Amino acid sequence: MPTDSRLSRMLHVLIHMDRHGGPLTSETIAGMLGTNPVVVRRTMSGLKAAGYVASEKGHGGGWTVARPLDQITLLDIHEAVGSPKLFAIGLADDDPACLIERAVNAAMTETLSDAERMLRARLSEVTVASVAPDVEQFDAYLAAHTVRT
């Protein structure tokens, strides 16, 4: 089963946008992520609807961060990208009448629900700003890598 990387990709984008200090186009962001600008616009639309980014059309336009990163949590971004499943573990349904399968599924459902509650709680405690590299590290990175606008 493939993993969903939208959360980590959007955290990456938000930190770049914040440090960049100006608008970034969908094309520029797509280049950073190795994807299509249409995918960027579709994903960013959820962040825009939640008030985390803004966009300007036309020459000199692009995407900008609309709120300070210390006011945005990882859970906020997870929800803004559509709340993808947190776990790839699934239940068996080969024989729903089997008492053992039903017991296993009940235990797994409870365990996964508990784990999801704990993970969501932790995601709500971590801000995007707290995962960003410090300014000196980022400046050194920018000196070594060109971010095209």
UniProtKB/TrEMBL annotation:
This is Rrf2 family transcriptional regulator. InterPro entries: Tscrpt_reg_Rrf2, WH-like_DNA-bd_sf, WH_DNA-bd_sf. The lineage of its organism: Bacteria, Pseudomonadati, Pseudomonadota, Alphaproteobacteria, Caulobacterales. It holds the Pfam family Rrf2. It comes from the Bacteria. It comes from Brevundimonas staleyi.
